[in-house]
Amino acid sequence: MSPLLTDxxxxxxxxxxxxxxxxxxxxxxxxxxxKISAWxxxxxxxxxxxxxxxxxxxxxxxxxxxxxxxxxxxADKKLHFIAPIISIGVAMAVYAVIPFGDSFMVxxxxxxxxxxxGVNIGLLFVFAMSSVGVYGITLAGWSSNNKYSLLGGLRSxxxxxxxxxxxxxxxxxxxxxxxSLDLTQIVHAQAGGKWNIFLQPLAFIIFLVASxxxxxxxxxxxxxxxxxxxxxxxxxxxxxxxxxxxxxxYANMVTASAMMVLLFLxxxxxxxxxxxxxxxxxxxxxxLVQFGxxxxxxxxxxxxxxxxxxxxxxxxxxxxxxxxWKVMLPLALANIVITGIVMTLLKHYGIM
Amino acid sequence: MNVNHNTEKDRLNFWEKLYLPEIARGxxxxxxxxxxxxxxxxxxxERWEPTGSYRGRPVLVLEEDGERxxxxxxxxxVCPALAIEVQAAETTKEKERYPVKFEINMLRCIYCGFCxxxxxxxxxxxxxxYELIFTNQEDAILGKDxxxxxxxxxxxxxxxxxxxx
Lengths: 352, 165
Description:
The structure holds 2 protein chains of 2 kinds. Chain A has a two-stranded antiparallel sheet. Chain A is 67% helix and 2% strand. Chain A has one domain (3-41, 67-348). Chain A has helices at 3-40, 56-66, 77-93, 122-143, 147-170, 172-178, 183-189, 196-199, 201-214, 226-229, 239-264, 273-277, 284-309, 317-348, and strands at residues 104-106, 109-111. In chain A, strand 1 and strand 2 (109-111) form a beta hairpin. In chain A, helix 4 (122-143) packs antiparallel against helix 5 (147-170). The N and C termini of chain A lie far apart (49 Å). In chain B, the strands form 2 sheets. In chain B, strands 1, 2, 5 and 7 form a 4-stranded mixed beta sheet that branches. In chain B, a hairpin with a 2-residue loop joins strand 1 (58-63) and strand 2 (66-67). Chain B is α+β, with helices and mostly antiparallel strands.
């Protein structure tokens, strides 16, 4: 086989794995969301489809496929069709740059644990893509020709733009420490237990709150606010188009959690673990363990997302804007200044 | 002027305004709930057995030698929802009267238990039956065939009535 063909095959295999893995993760997140909500309410939750109700999500998706796809008569049909595709497409495109571990060697060939390895603008790409995600929701709200959808779309635009700002500013401290936008290098900079959550606790809290707003989850789920806006931007969507929005929401949740793991929780770094295992460097086993560590850090954050949803009420719109602009933004800016001063002082006295 | 101030500034102290400690408290509350036993029941498999005080579908008591009802129509008269229809006839038995027709319209019944309270013979009582499903309106009008229940199945309610009525 020619080297080019091998590369293309490896790439396709990776894309296949990531897309399917992400969809499965989203499907099972829906299941766990329902289970955890049930536990929080002292209920039992889905337990009819398959053992412990594990196939519930597949039954739901199957139902969504069979449902009639209704397009409102006065809707902008093209935009109505494109909006869910933008949402899910963007949610998946982010995974092109997210690394799940270091590269490993197979038959003298280096295989990277991400679709596009070594992209030196990795972090920037993630942020660019997640801001394109606003288009999906806003266009859905606009094209439905329904006042509730429109309000939901506008709210999401306002909310996501406000919180993207503090989200972007909160990670600048992390970038200053790592000195790179490449996600793999940011992870490597946290080796040996120097996780950014300890170095940048304020940035982590800002990033956490902003991720809740970015993924439109409670307490910031104003765009879909059921009691006031029916269903917000997806009021006029049915069948699998609604399903795509639903999957995109959960895929975004996984993305936000993955970003938190990579930027603040040291990614696949775990002090002492790899030394204790003493596996040969570059073997696929190491990559597998690294992926395991990554997933083990990812799951508690995903649980936290769901846990918060079933504990907190929704913010009022003015509270949302106050928090975004008057609290989070100044705090994020202060964090940059403080990080800069501390780093300069440390360099000056030769500690770093 | 008498103005009551109740703004967020007056209500909340510094820590409450920070949100985060209060959010942590709220999260702790839901986390504790997650480890409690579910309060719900797997309905078709697990059924709830009511006690004698439960007022379910009203039924007629059937003794070994026939029904208790003497067709006095008091239940029909007292029924606030006009759900009961009784037609009396005479027999040669000791009680002399019996209902030829006894119908309760379950779409009208409000389970108030007045019929049971007014009955001089303790012939109509509230059962424990709460699973009332009808596919059309005619089915919801229960005749004597569905109303007569052997006395052995109604012991809980009869015991309850003896003690508390």
